[in-house]
Amino acid sequence: xxxxxxxxxxxxxxxxxxxxxxxxxxxxxxxxxxxxxxxxxxxxxxxxxxxxxxxxxxxxxxxxxxxxxxxxxxxxxxxxxxxxxxxxxxxxxxxxxxxxxxxxxxxxxxxxxxxxxxxxxxxxxxxxxxxxxxxxxxxxxxxxxxxxxxxxxxxxxxxxxxxxxxxxxxxxxxxxxxxxxxxxxxxxxxxxxxxxxxxxxxxxxxxxxxxxxxxxxxxxxxxxxxxxxxxxxxxxxxxxxxxxxxxxxxxxxxxxxxxxxxxxxxxxxxxxxxxxxxxxx
Length: 281
Ligand code: C2E
Ligand code: MG
Ligand code: MG
Ligand code: MG
Hints:
Blueprint: H1 2-8, H2 18-36, E1 40-49, E2 55-65, E3 69-71, H3 73-81, H4 85-101, E4 111-116, H5 117-121, H6 125-135, E5 143-148, H7 156-169, E6 172-178, H8 184-190, E7 195-198, H9 200-203, H10 211-225, E8 229-233, H11 238-246, E9 251-253, E10 261-262, H12 266-280
Parallel strand pairs: 2-4, 4-5, 5-6, 6-7, 7-8, 8-9
Antiparallel strand pairs: 1-2, 1-9, 1-10, 2-3
């Protein structure tokens, strides 16, 4: 679904595909207006910590456009990544996450924020993040930065140095969608990573005797050898959960536990998850 969503709005150079290009530019102009019109919201998807009853969250953006309807992030994030709009979006999400974090009474909760590579590479990244951190008086240790790999790293040395500084401030660095991009291993080699998140693609069809599972097992072994934590995304069934839990994965995210929910439903969702976990043990 991911690749399909992306292809729909690809940049085409040739004249034949002019309508596609229009969709892209329309999307771009609508995204830029969406800020002024307050059309973005944040949802939160629980991430179950295998070793404790604590639940963390991933912040995921949602866009309800009056003219386009509900647009999935799979479509508009890719469109925004073709411009600098993605940087503005990611800064906005980060700022909102700080605002929400300040509302948690349990200060040990963490929230993950997705940052596109373009945002990571932006000159003002540290300044921006620290200004939100300071404004809401947030401990950087409660924020994980998920680096999504939809684009190729350009300024490697500078980016690595920057991520190392952010890590020293307390932020955790996560490689998102691990395995789907051919840059995954290179990012693992170069970046100061704390955790990898194995993509749903590998989780979808796992069975204890198939290729997908062997790949996941090998990725987990690789991660553990490097001293990294492993999150799995897209856990939809109990069978997947049992297999992955026995296979040494640390954190679980997926519809089995909960879809992304608005902030106000977090407490209720956590109660449901705790009941479910009791049954699963
Ligand atoms: P992601 O970071 O890999 O986030 C996980 C996506 O998988 C989310 O889709 C989530 O709703 C979905 N998901 C989680 N568990 C399951 C499951 O069990 N089954 C199924 N079918 N899906 C599951 P979502 O929210 O549509 O986001 C799609 C992608 O858009 C994200 O993938 C991320 O790459 C990007 N994105 C979302 N918010 C932001 C943002 O604020 N900034 C940036 N740069 N990218 C974002
Ligand atoms: Mg993510
Ligand atoms: Mg992911
Ligand atoms: Mg993914």
